[in-house]
Amino acid sequence: RGSPGSLNNYRSTEELPSQCDILIIGAGYSGGSLITHILSQPESRDKSIVVLEARQLCSGATGQNGVPGTGKSVLASGLIHHLSSEECPVLYFFFRHTIQSNHRPESAIRDWLAQVLPFSPHLQLALMNLTSEPINLDFVDDLSLVELWHLVRLALKNMPQVYCVVDALDEMDSDALEHFLQLIDQLGNMHPDRVKLIITSRPIATIEKIVRNLRLLDIRLDKKAINPDISTYLQHRLASSKLSPETKDAIKNIALEKADGLFLYAKLTMDKIAGLDHEPETEILQTLERMPVSLSFIYGHLLREHMGRTGLPKGLQMLVLQLVTHATRPLRLLEISDCIRVTQPQYGQDAGTIKSHVRTCCGPLLEVLPDETVRVVHHSLTEYLFGLTRSSADEDIPVFEPGPTHDLVANLCLSYLQAGHLDNITFVENSTFFRRTVLAKQEFPPFMNYAVNNWHTHAKKATRRQFPQEKTNEKVFSMLMTPESAWRLTALAEQTHTRSWHPGHPGLSGYPWVRDEKMSLETEVLLFSMRLGLTNFIENFLERCGEEAVNYSGTKMIQPPLHQAVEKRMLEIIHLLVKHGAELDQHDYQGDTPLYVALGGQSSRTKGASQPAIVESLLKAGADPWKTQERKKRRSHMIGISEESHTSYKPIRMAFSTCDDTIAKLFIPYVKTTETANEALGWVMEGSRNIKVMRLILDFGLVAINACADGPTFLFLACKHGDPKAVSILLEAGADPNTCHFRNSEPSGSGKEMAGPNVMHALADLTLMDPQTHIRHAAADEVVTECFKLVLDAGADGK
């Protein structure tokens, strides 16, 4: 990079001039190079030049606006490539509404974390902690947007320099746009001298309204700035043509005028002309003159013209476009042609011919990349096909409505799987302890991977858009009720290593590796569908096979259906299972009822925003909160020791001892006597000591506050735990600090009783247990002092 040179730290005036001949924004290497170049020109030596650092105008954030086709994404890509040479992190993301993984803010932040990970030891350590005991996070995808954002801030906290490029912000889901922009604003303002942020977007009203209050530098890509580059591009494309110089100039002038600042229009025009090489020059010019001006008109024009010229069926053209625009990931040319060959025999059976048709059927509107993935030439074409930018003249071109189109793709995947491919899968038994059945090494047809891993995704997308699912549900029923089909799909999904099927993720999470021969086919289909979240299908399926499907007691490796639905927080499916006869107080292999699992059971998986609703639904349906867990002593098959490791609980005990007041409130109506009220308060005191839960129980009015028949008083427990807040609330409720619990100290039958310890004894030698190490240590002096003051002020006898 050399020495700083004569311009380093140079300033000719302390005051910013009110006018100048040349304004340069950016005082880095690019700005310095530009200054040196300008000053080297004789005609520029007398010019007034003002150079500003970008952060003098904004706080590290730069926004670039332009209409569709002006080259924003090309500019962003070039910028990423240029910045990557500076040996510092460059975080980037390209929002695309048509790609499943590219239109949510969570996806952008996950990509940034992956890109910055090699540069950030702090992030590496944080992720290591998240994936280790006791958290055991399976995927970063399991983290919320807030948690992901915390990791980004942690990673960038001590970075000396980092660039962040966000392309096509307008392609992001609108419901998440404002919150994401607020986070982006935080990022730009966090360390504006070290974190540089660049955003590209179309100037749509929603975004412009939000960014109006953000501090950023707004750069507009207008046609005056872009036309010279478009002219250069046209000249480059025409250079290899055999047309006469006069025709080339004419084409260049017409295309430049019609492009009106749109790179995309110029590209489509040149792609069109490239296909007319053998036409007379006059015909080429006439074709160019006939081409519409706006992008929406040109899309319709190109589709009709190309369809007529190739003679290919309109249905094939539309089907290819539907697959390309609605697939959850970019499809390869071979995948599309294989899907059409198998599911649409009317278009032919020869794989090579169909592949050629797919390649050519949409002309310049589709691009086949070097890896043979197929994509639309520009995301504005997708908007046109979705009907967002249509004119009334395009009624002959179908609008791709999301509901029907996703349903179509789901049915194509199902038809493909039912065409015999599932039956051709071969399995082998491996020699592991559980004798897990795995796929034999084999090659699968091109579309198999996509069909196996995405048929359910498209079906759910169609359902969310209220598209009727009767036909699709019938196909799913036919496929899954064929013996072995569910297991074959599971094994295939695992073989293809697709994340949506991976254990711990939406999909076949926790699907049994050890098959239960006693499980009915109906239950297997139900559990399979639950793991895929096919609520609409499950509702239809239970109407037909509910009794046979829900009555399954489970095994050590497989929980009953209702337990699984509760653990996965599937509220709608819980309602359906209960409606169709699932046993509410059934014990699983561990002895847990669904209600116990809902409260947390042996894991924290059920905890979250949906937990209160699940608990409430089970209680309303008739689940017994006093049902004791059936803990049984079982011996391990491998090491011969008991598997029981914790005390059996009633669900109501877990609710009061470990849950917050939202959950505890649901159980208050089941506390009906003084005895049960005392039990409930005792569980809280020995458990969470949650003040709000204590108040709930005390306010119910049944607690005998000074009861001590079965052990120490509640006040004694609060003092023993060194909890001033609990001490205070119990004293307010009328607890007597001088009450002792009585215990027999003489042999049985002597009739003599002695008073036990009181609160002063509890505080005299107070030790507390460390929740992490489980080692007891002396309580802090201030805690002991506060507790002593509370009980003495309440009249405790210190003698």
Automatic annotation (TrEMBL):
**Residues in domain Nephrocystin 3-like N-terminal?**
65-202
Xref: SUPFAM superfamilies: Ankyrin repeat, FAD/NAD(P)-binding domain, P-loop containing nucleoside triphosphate hydrolases
Q: Which domain of life is it from?
A: Eukaryota
State the ANK repeat positions.
Answer: 561-589, 710-742
Which SMART domains does this entry report, sorted A to Z? ANK
Domain GPI inositol-deacylase winged helix: start-end pairs:
318-387
Identify the keywords attached in UniProt to this record, alphabetized. Answer: ANK repeat, Repeat
* One Pfam family this sequence matches: Ank_2
Instruction: Please report the name of this protein according to its UniProt entry.
Output: Uncharacterized protein
Annotated source species = Fusarium oxysporum f. sp. cubense (strain race 1) (Panama disease fungus)
